[in-house]
């Protein structure tokens, strides 16, 4: 009935303005009532011209055409002799739009949405359009769980046929989720399924959590998570029957009910690969990762298909298609799985395109690329290129795409798009370290000198324990084989007394030149030769061993040193890695004919295991050993290893572990062993690219093999705690809170430790 009334009203609105005259031939057309709109605009839309024979039907079409423009709120046709008079009343234009009371949805976003809908300043006002926008606003707020939102618009007339629109929004409260209930689940409890959801009641121990903030999009994502949970655990017939969202009477609470049908649990039957596999079928079968008898898992099935595509990509098949097709046997509760493999054509690279590098030379990027123009495409080379570019540290983002060349079946382009980071820095600041105290630093560094990829740094650091002045220059591409050459000049003064170690001071100057020789994509050998001038100053409370050393060898030493090292690095990125490993072995040697003859060997391995999105586990082990040789009977005491502090075993004072002298100050030792296990995890509302949280277990000890009768792990000191690292503008800010759990009465504890500033 209501639709009939509306239809009749529309007919009357169109017919009534034209029923006052009979058919006639139009000699002229006159438009009256225009204020803003030009007559030409009316004639452009009006279907009647001079010399047309106008009857009631054509006149009605003319009125309808002008109404349809949206420019007019009233149109009437009249006859003045043989002149057709078009009387119009223009809709007002929108002079200004004001929105108040909104915070959940930004004003700019609302204005843009209104503009996209046709309601904006300067446009013709349409009340129906405004009412539609009000309804859509309420719908958007409902989707955010704000069910008591109020939206009220006011239209105020202005001079010159204009209006001002004011939209007042009272967003109200966000309804909180009180409970999520599941109906139909038998294999998994409500508690297990609730753990799959990101939405749910807010835990008491997370007072700032937004878990209980309902939104339609978040619920949709959680339902997909629930589907994946079942499909990855054997339930191939799982289905979501329905989901309901119920409000409490005061609209402050939400109850979510999910109705589901689990179906039966399935196992895999026959697993086959059909098609041209290119490589050995046995190798492909291994890449699948599933076999007969395994529990059905959509995730593992998809991963197997991805592994095959990746393997074919290594062979140059960029367009390979792998389609796993399940055949469900509901009687036996098995799923036969067939992977249909179509490798397509082998592709080669037509062109390598580089963009976004406004500072870095193209040549620098091309040197890191392992996918060459004109060569066969290799997904492995693409992945290696991306990793090498990320490890440079020049770029905030590296994107590599491989689109197919239009019209070609065997060609692709490689498009490398980078976002330049801040490769240069000028820093002057104040820091603090639990082991070094107040730190004043000034440094000028450029990791990408003139876009060449070379690195130069001038650094001056002063603390109560040490002062360091250093100038370094690194040529990353010394020759075409990728050899790195670097120079270093430094002067360091250390006062061990202020570090609460033994009573001595050291003034040390070094000049070094070295080369880094790449063996492959991950391995590098470094060779360093240098000159060292070292002066030793013993205090009045120096130990007997230290005094004996000076009596035997003096207090001024000229040493000629070399250092050999091998490093394998497969980290996925330079800062905050999440996967890969770094392993290194090094030997530092004071050469024969130096005033002191000794060596120090080091071994380190750190490995990251990705566990989930933004979750990773790090295992890190380090061993260091030193000894004298030739005319030097022992490792110089000022070259001893130390442990304890924020960079080794947290919870113990810096450099405090190991043997102590007669004055009860740590003396270090010629053997150090340290191990760390650390779990990194994300925090809500925190940028994971700049901040990292972790919980850890540390262990380690320092030994003097000349005095300790045996090396026992029982002597290790352990701690556990939590840590936080932020890459601040002043450098890395690191804090840790640790609890030692097997400390002895002789140990110095320092549970809270932090460092701030740039250390070199």
Task: Describe the protein.
There is one protein chain. The chain is α+β, with helices and mostly antiparallel strands. It has six domains: 89 residues, membrane protein fhac (Ubiquitin-like (UB roll), Roll); 78 residues, Ubiquitin-like (UB roll) (Roll), CATH 3.10.20; 86 residues, Ubiquitin-like (UB roll); 76 residues, Roll (Ubiquitin-like (UB roll)); 73 residues, Ubiquitin-like (UB roll); 238 residues, Beta Barrel (Porin). It is 18% helix and 42% strand. The strands form eight sheets. It has a 16-stranded antiparallel β-barrel with strand order 18-19-20-21-22-23-24-25-26-27-28-30-31-32-33-35. Strand 32 and strand 33 form a beta hairpin. The N terminus is likely disordered.
Map the helices and strands.
Elements: H1 2-15, E1 24-25, E2 28-32, H2 39-45, E3 53-54, H3 56-68, E4 72-80, E5 83-90, E6 93-100, H4 107-117, H5 127-143, E7 150-158, E8 162-170, E9 176-183, H6 190-194, H7 216-231, E10 239-247, E11 253-261, E12 267-275, H8 281-288, H9 298-314, E13 321-329, E14 334-342, E15 348-355, H10 362-368, H11 379-392, E16 395-401, E17 411-420, E18 424-433, E19 437-446, E20 455-463, E21 466-475, E22 484-495, E23 504-518, E24 523-538, H12 544-553, E25 556-569, E26 580-590, E27 598-612, E28 615-628, E29 651-652, E30 671-681, E31 691-703, E32 717-728, E33 731-740, E34 749-750, E35 752-756
Parallel strand pairs: 2-5, 6-8, 9-11, 12-14, 15-17
Antiparallel strand pairs: 1-3, 4-5, 7-8, 10-11, 13-14, 16-17, 18-19, 18-35, 19-20, 20-21, 21-22, 22-23, 23-24, 24-25, 25-26, 26-27, 27-28, 28-30, 29-34, 30-31, 31-32, 32-33, 33-35
